[in-house]
Amino acid sequence: MLFAASGLIGTPVAARDGRIGVVAEFLLDGPRWRVRWLVVDPGRRLPGRKVLIHRSAMLPIQLPERPAIPMFSVSGESMKVAVDLSLRQIEASPEAPVEAPVTRDLERRICEHYGWDPFDSAPPDAGWGGAVALKGFVAEGLDGAIGTVENALIDDRNWSLGYFLVATGGWLSGRTVQIPAEAATGIEWPARVARFSVTRERARSAPVWDPLAMVDAIAEASVRRHFGAP
After folding, report:
1. Which of 45, 46, 206, 227 is most enclosed, with most CB atoms within 10 A?
2. Alpha carbon distance 93, 21 (integer Å)
3. Positive or negative, the Cα torsion across 226, 154, 25, 74?
4. Domain boundaries 135-227, CATH class
5. In CATH terms, is domain 2-114 a member of 3.40.50.1820?
């Protein structure tokens, strides 16, 4: 199912034998538009540290019996992100101070600790970015600005980024469209620009994003046909 990245911030993260903390952010592998790391805030359990969990240890999100709009928001303890690790494994992982960047050396040490594949990585020049940190970036099409990035939709089946949510026109218009991640050609982090291989007209004439309709495969197929995405 698709979940808005911002809606998952603060969601409880459960290890096999107990809660480890809450979702702080997601770090993306830009060229392939997949979640690379789940960043967990462990709170008082591991003060002054953040916890990095690779997507290979992340399980599909556990939904309550009657989720309201799971792809858009969560409510308290109604959902959780489960990871296939024990609390002891996580607590013994290499320390990652809250303010420290996620370096290649830190990634290597974490992968060695858990026995994860150290080669399952983005190219060295790919760069990292938080999914939620994209909010407010200018969405640039082939022939000019489309609007601004408002959010990203993440698929918990494989932890890939499925769509960018882009507000087109002025903020008063309230028109948000979803652009398939395959149409994104790159992110310019210093300039705060997200580039897409679509024209302004193609993006602005897309169906308005409806969080309720997105649970319908037919509605999703219509959006993908509009952009020529498989």
Report:
1. 206
2. 15
3. positive
4. mainly beta
5. no
DSSP assignment letter at 80: B
- Joined together, the tokens standing for residue 60 give 């599909």
Kindly report, residue by residue over 190-209, the tens digit of the pLDDT: 899 999 999 999 998 998 88
Of the two residues 108 and 132, the one the predictor is more confident about is 108
Q: Which residues contact 114 (CB under 8 A, 6 or more apart)?
A: 54, 57, 85, 89, 93
pLDDT at 49: 95
Sign (positive or negative) of CA dihedral 170, 175, 181, 183: negative
Residue 211's closest CA among 14, 89, 68, 95? 68
Position 123 pLDDT exceeds 70: no
Domain ranges within the chain, ordered by starting residue:
2-114, 135-227
> In terms of Cα–Cα distance, which of 128, 50, 55, 35 is closest to 94?
50
> 2-114 with 135-227: one CATH topology?
no
Establish how many alpha carbons lie within 13 A of residue 217's alpha carbon, considering only the half-sphere containing its beta carbon.
0
